[in-house]
Structures are given as C-alpha cells and as structure tokens.
Amino acid sequence: MANINPNTSKMVESKKMESEIKKQAVLAVLKELTLLDDPISNPISKAEICRKAGVSKTFLYSYKQELLKPIDEAITKQNQKLKVITKKQTFSESSKDKLIESLKRRVAELDEDNKKLRKDNSILLGKLANR
User: How far lies 78's CA from each of 37, 57, 63, 88, 128, in Å?
Assistant: First the structure.
C-alpha cells in the first residue's frame, strides 16, 4: 500500500544542499581559473569548468544568474586579454632563433632524462621479476 502523503522534505533538503555544494565547486573552479590568469594553458570555458567541477552544462544553465553570468563575464575578460596578448607577441627573427635553440636544448635534456628513466625502470623491473 502506497503512502498517500509521503514525507519528502528531507530528500528535497538533501538535494538542495547537494546543488549548493555543486554551485560552490563551480565558483571555486572559476576562481581558480581566473587566478591562474593564463588564457592559453588554462582557458576559461563552460566545458572546462563543468569538467573540473564535475557538473553538467545543464546544471550551469539551471542557475543563470548565479553561475552563468559570472562565467560569461570571466570569459569576456579573458577574450579581451587574449586579444592584447596576440597583439603584443611580435618577435624579431633573432629572438625567434634564440627561442628555438633554447627549446631544442630543453628537448635534448628531456630526451636524456627520458632515456635514463627508461633504463632505471627496466633495471627495477628486472629486479622485481627476479624476486
């Protein structure tokens, strides 16, 4: 026999608390991305915020004033900053060459480190197999 007047107040309260926690997570991710202030490596986008906060885009759109508005403002600020960055980055040929050389040296160093780590790893795997 079904309950005619079910007491769902605890369930509703629980879901509201869960939504509030998710909203705080979204705002925390937005704050983190804003503080990083790196539009190239850490772009502010709805998809990235959803991924990092563990929510769906539908959740964002459910709270337009609380979540979407600050996100859209941050994206707009970031896009303005990106335009400034791309205008500023004009390199001379010599500076480009120096940058390429330094990157080549860095790649060579990382290759050496990689070879050393692979060798160490194979030695450790051999020791582990002999046990």
Answer: 8, 20, 22, 15, 50
38 shares a domain with 26: yes
Amino acid residing at 52? K
Residue 40: what pLDDT?
Answer: 76
- Write down the pTM of the prediction: 0.58
Contacts of residue 19, Cβ cutoff 8 Å, sequence gap at least 6: 59
Identify the domain containing residue 96 by its residue range. 91-131
Residue 1 lies in a domain: no
64 and 127, same domain (yes or no) = no
CA–CA distance, 46 with 55 (Å, rounded to integer): 10
Closest Cα to residue 46, out of 10, 36, 38, 33? 33
- Percentage of the chain beyond pLDDT 90 is 53
